[in-house]
């Protein structure tokens, strides 16, 4: 990661899941050059069998099951989806986005960092609202 003086937390939020019928693969941090990351860790203990699937470099699909006390960090160009599954109680994941303090990378990073929660912090420290969600206006 290319940073000047500190790693910057862009945002934090809780992800709730209770059902996924089919994969919906997505790409975070496209063209981010690993200057932005997402950390996911479960905060409920009912996530077994309802984790993450991802595309490997050879095109095959891998899987990761969330475990209490463990976290996964997603970097640039990681193609992934919620694994199909269902839970009677919502599965809750704590998510933190973080990365560089250099504003020169923000155009690429903001595609992910500015759209995952209601508030986000830019690399230069400015706290902003995600106007797309309109929760705090």
Give the oligomeric state of the chains in this entry, treating copies of one chain as homo and distinct chains as hetero: single chain
Please write the string of helix (H) and strand (E) elements.
Answer: EEEEEEEEHEE
Which residues form runs of ≥5 with pLDDT under 50? none
Q: Decide which structural class fits the backbone.
A: mainly beta
Output the CATH homologous superfamily. Answer: q2cbj1_9rhob like domain
Q: Report the span from N to C terminus.
A: 34 Å
Strand order of the largest sheet: 1-8-3-6
Radius of gyration of CA atoms, rounded to a whole number: 15 Å
Helical segment count: 1
Mean pLDDT value: 90
Work out the number of β strands: 10
CATH topology label: Jelly Rolls
Number of domains: 1
What's the CATH C level?
Mainly Beta
* Main sheet: strands, sense, barrel: 4 strands, antiparallel
Give the fraction of residues assigned to helices.
under 10%
Strand content: 35-45%
Task: Assign the CATH architecture.
Answer: Sandwich
